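Re: the 154-residue chain
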Amino acid sequence: MQETDKKIKAMTASIGRLGNKLGDFVEEMVRPAAVRLFREQGIAVHEVHRNVEAQRGDEGIEVDLLVVNDSDVVAIECKSTLSIDDVNAHLERLGKLKRLLPSYQGKRVMGAVTGMVMPDNVAVYAYQKGLFVIAQSGDHLLIRNDGAFKPRVW
């Protein structure tokens, strides 16, 4: 029994590391495309930051990618498989961003989500919540939001 428990723990840790590697892969796919994608949306990009973390007291956040210019910030959540729970967690994160990263208080904060696998219902949900939806199309990335889309601003 103890040997089985050890093997299960080791396998669980391996799966967790693999999931993290897939998330890193998604971030590395999106990071170079972020400049083009948001410029196409009329948002100039001056900086792209990876793995931005903030901790103030008991509260903290981690943002996978942060796209920044003089007036705007787009926080991007990258997942191997994006779920509705991931979208909801990102919405909560966006609500905390200006408080936990006060250097962005004077900027418009918007959000985006992406994933290697993104079910249509999740993409629609994210769109309805005011998030940019970044998806793969063939061998390049695109923002799936249509011309009627108005991003939610925090």
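The helical segments are 2-40, 84-100, 120-128.
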